[in-house]
Amino acid sequence: MTSPPSPHYTDVAARNLRRIESLSDGVFSIAMTLLVLNLRVPAAALVRTEAAVGPALLRLLPDLGGYVLGFLSLGIFWVCQSTQFTYLERSDRRLAWWHISFLLVVGLLPFSTAFLTTHLPLRGAVLVYWANLLLPGLALLGSYRYAQRQGLLRPAEAAVSRALVRRLGLMQLQYAAAVALCFVHVYAGVGLLLLVQLNYAVGLVASRWLGD
């Protein structure tokens, strides 16, 4: 009686979804923590009187805005990925690498956020940040499409699938619109970007067109 053929490594690798989720949660928690390191406490030599406290804190507003923007971005991508995990039935090696690629660019968000706040008047800084929003979106979309083709998803209505893909697409279109506005007025573009993030995080505008 012949023994069954040994499985190929690629057929058995990275099938544990919980391990991928655990890695993702770890990367997101570290990235969110790193954002706060961009908030520098004003030097004691610059804040010697009560009157100096207010101006010192005002100087921190760009960094504080960057912290909020970066935290919202990470939170939105975490929710998107966790939603995708809800509909995944199993994994394989290639899907795992799709999500590792997603985490690769997610881990850069503290850097791109700091670059944006440090060089905010420059449109190039906004483009760097936008690229760091575009790449995770593409990686998430690619991972979901791959899971669809390989039959790795739980049975779900087509409407659910369309909703997931539509949300990722609308997010990227709105990010692109905010970046385009930066070529007219940099601060207006960044403000629109922050509003888009707030909408996806807390639903400021209850509109299906906006992806809520």
Summarize this entry quickly:
This protein is mainly α.
Explain what this protein looks like in three dimensions.
There is one protein chain. It contains nine helices and no strands. With 212 residues, the protein is an all-alpha fold. α6 packs antiparallel against α7 (123-149). The relative contact order is 0.11. This is DUF1211 domain-containing protein. Belongs to the TMEM175 family. Pfam families: TMEM175 (PF06736).
Lay out the secondary structure.
Blueprint: H1 9-12, H2 17-35, H3 53-58, H4 61-86, H5 93-106, H6 109-118, H7 123-149, H8 158-182, H9 186-202
Helix pairs in contact: 2-4, 2-5, 2-6, 4-6, 4-7, 4-9, 5-7, 6-7, 7-8, 8-9
- Count every helix, treating DSSP H or I runs of 4 or more residues as helices: 9
How many distinct beta strands? 0
Q: Looking at the structure, what is the overall shape?
A: elongated
Mean pLDDT: 83
Low-confidence stretches: 206-212
N-to-C series of helices and strands: HHHHHHHHH
Features:
212 residues; disordered C terminus; elongated; single chain; 70% helix; 9 helices
